[in-house]
Amino acid sequence: MLSPDNRKIAxxxxxxxxxxxxxxxxDALADHKxxxxxxxxxxxxxKPGYHVTExxxxxxxxxxxxxxxxxxxxxxxxxxxVDEGGPVHMPAGRFVAIIRKVADHVALDQAARLxxxxxDGIRPMELHRATQPTLVGGxxxxxxxxxxxxxKPRDRWLEExxxxxxxxxxxxxxxCCS
Length: 178
What we know:
3 helices; disordered N terminus; 8-stranded mixed β-sheet; 178 residues; 31% strand
């Protein structure tokens, strides 16, 4: 039987800069503990009674479509989009307290990729990534957008192209590459 040689697992790709980590989210919420925390997805806010039903940590090892080994950590926050908690959205401080309680029992890598799993209990769960929270009229809003699939070899190639173009076409005064 074949067994993988885990010593050959490549370091994790740099995270998409538009992705938020759990550390980023907690830091952003620190000064807004009493303000309502509203997650938005599909063009609408979650219902006021939403629940954080689960927080889980995943450590993944995979082989991408170019036969390259990959590994990364990811934190999943599951939101149940229901209207059972009252007329107002959860305060940001309560969300932070939930995450801190999880951290008392499960090691949370503050720099791990953050994914939200959202369902209303009827529709299938959807995977989302989060943007940096914004303060809108006394409410902390976090926009969630569907997490797209990607081709890691293509993503690496695009990053290499961007780096190559930046090094020859940047502010160095060198003539632009073609």
